[in-house]
Specification:
The complex is a heterodimer. Chain A is mainly alpha-helical. Chain A is built from eight helices and two strands. A two-stranded antiparallel sheet of chain A has the order 1-2. Chain A starts with 14 loop residues before the first strand and ends with a helix. The two termini of chain B are 14 Å apart. The chains are: A mainly alpha, B mainly alpha.
């Protein structure tokens, strides 16, 4: 527990937390050690370089992810129980069912079915989870005082890696053969196309990562800058500060509304593009099934 | 000399981000133009067209935001 360090004043079991004063005191290299790093020390109190410390403290981002997870699970389980009890199956859905059923049906019919065809049921839990998790974290990030989870590159990198792993594991030989040897392409173009195709296997999840991260970060930076304008002008003169305030706040409200739209849009875009990439990887299985059906029909 | 290099890095990052914003504006403007013309020709499919327009706009904006991130990195990294 990082509270045992008492903000860097005590050592705990061969570990010590660095503070700015300690870094100056011990003449450590500022580019290697930052304040609040946890380092291992040996008996004499010098820093032991050979022990690597992995800092897995519960930060504000982690707490927000836990809260989003709890909220998400609670809502979904409640709605699932309602459906199991028979409400909304043969009668009209009520309450929170009415809120989520159009969204889930939208993801199933507009995002999963066009791209994945008959295999959409296999990937639908994954796509729905990604959509709602990104959406809830985006919306929480807009509340002043909360942590910007989706604006954190670590979070989006993990989402991108998970999507990448799903794409790789659902691709079959048909997909890889089409990358190495695209059909219907003249030989000269193949020399350019094959490296581009191989790189694009990695670039596509990378683009997903950067798109989500940059959109969320840009929105928050705009809001911070607009509000800071008030204080920047206030430094020049108090009246300039008061004068800027109405315009700045009006702009901020406008950008806030756009940010809510962007929150929904980015969750949808991430899910849609993941579905498209999985669809590209799974094409072989879909076509093969069609072929088998055709053969049996001919016979 | 290092001050000049620092200033050049900042200026380069800022100019790159600004050019990316111009590119995004032109691209999304053309998407909007195509979408509005298509709706004018056939108003009953305006829902489909609106969905496609928003999807394509988000993709183009993703490309612009790549450049903004790179501009920011140019300013921050040494």
């Amino acid at each position: 527990m990082s509270s045992k360090f008492h903000h860097g004043e005590e050592t705990y079991h061969n570990y010590m937390m660095l503070t700015d004063e300690k870094i100056e005191e011990l003449k450590l290299d500022p580019s290697k050690y930052n304040a609040q790093d946890i380092v291992a020390i040996d008996d004499k109190g010098a820093i032991d370089e050979s022990v690597k410390v992995y800092d897995i403290s519960i930060t504000r981002n982690v707490i927000q992810m836990f809260i989003a997870l709890a909220l998400f699970t609670w809502i979904m389980l409640r709605i699932a129980k309602k459906y199991k009890n028979g409400h909304g199956v043969v009668s009209a859905p009520k309450g929170s069912q009415g809120l989520l059923e159009p969204v889930i049906t939208f993801v199933r019919d507009e995002v999963a079915k066009p791209n994945l065809g008959r295999l959409s049921d296999r990937y639908l839990p994954f796509l729905l989870t990604i959509f709602f998790f990104i959406l809830i974290n985006n919306i929480f990030g807009l509340i002043p005082g909360s942590a910007n989870v989706t604006g954190n590159i670590a979070f989006t990198v993990i989402l991108g890696i998970i999507a990448f792993v799903v794409i790789i594991f659902s691709a079959d030989s048909h997909y890889w053969l089409h990358i190495i040897n695209p059909p219907g392409v003249p030989l000269g173009v193949k020399f350019i196309l094959v490296p581009v195709e191989i790189i694009s296997v990695f670039i596509k999840p990378f683009a997903l990562i950067i798109r989500l991260f940059a959109n969320m970060v840009a929105g928050h930076i705009i809001i911070i800058c607009l509000i800071s304008l008030i204080f920047i002008f206030a430094n020049l003169s108090t009246y300039a500060g008061w004068g800027t305030a109405p315009f700045s706040i009006a702009f901020t409200i406008f950008i806030y509304l756009i940010e809510v739209l962007v929150a929904f849009l980015q969750a949808f875009i991430f899910t849609m593009l993941t579905a498209v990439f999985i669809g590209q990887a799974v094409e072989g299985k879909l076509h093969q099934h069609h072929q088998e059906h055709e053969d049996s029909m001919l016979a | 000399m290092t001050i000049m290099l620092d200033a050049t890095a900042n200026a380069g990052g800022a100019i790159g981000a600004g050019l990316a914003a111009v590119g995004a504006g032109i691209g999304i403007g053309q998407i909007g133009k195509g979408a509005v013309e298509a709706i004018a020709r056939q108003p009953e499919v305006s829902n489909d067209i609106r969905g496609n327009m928003i999807l394509t706009a988000a993709l183009v904006e993703g490309a612009a935001l790549f450049a903004i991130i790179v501009g920011f990195l140019a300013m921050v990294l040494k």
